[in-house]
Write a structure and sequence with these properties.
The chain has 150 residues and is of the alpha+beta class. Helix content is 29%, strand content 28%. It is built from 3 helices and 5 strands; from the N terminus they run ααβββαββ. Helix 3 links the parallel strand 3 (66-75) and strand 4. The longest helix has 24 residues, at 10-33. The two termini are 25 Å apart. Mean pLDDT is 86; it is low at 1-6.
């Protein structure tokens, strides 16, 4: 779809991209702050992209954890709904397709080995409110674990 057809000019597309990049950086920092290890960001798997690939520690001795494909959705306003509402069935199918293709790879495109761990697909919603005004106080996160394939 062209920018003109969806009402988004090049400037708006650039703002959306920057917002998404900021959301992914915030999400990665948040996951690291709770003990996760970030394996990679923005991984291309075929025609799909994984926003964040991370390892969630298990907390159980002898268990190395879970490899998690994390879809990050960011909103700076609730004008168009919540970040979670922006994930449709087609996106969930693409995430599971990417996860399946990832599982078949010995390493990522940059040469990083794919950890041989159980695999899960999560959604991390980032509400990135403005620094000034209503809703100020920094981003908030909602982590939906193991989103269901449809």
């Amino acid at each position: 779809m062209s920018h003109a057809a969806d009402g988004a000019g090049p400037g708006l597309a650039r703002l959306r991209r920057r917002s998404g990049e900021r959301g992914e950086a915030l999400a990665a920092a948040h996951l690291e702050s709770i003990g996760w290890t970030i394996v990679a960001r923005r991984v291309r798997v075929g025609r799909d992209e994984i926003d964040v690939l991370a390892v969630e520690p298990s907390g159980t001795p002898g268990n190395s954890g879970t490899l998690v494909v994390v879809e990050v959705r960011t909103r700076t306003t609730d004008r168009y709904g919540t970040p979670e509402e922006s994930v449709d069935r087609a996106k969930v199918r693409r995430l599971y397709r990417a996860a399946s293709r990832l599982r078949a790879l010995p390493e990522l495109p940059d040469g990083t080995p794919v950890p041989p761990l159980p695999l899960r697909v999560d959604l991390l919603a980032v509400d990135d409110a403005p620094a000034i005004g209503p809703g100020a106080g920094g981003p908030t996160f909602r982590h939906l674990r193991a989103i269901e394939p449809v």
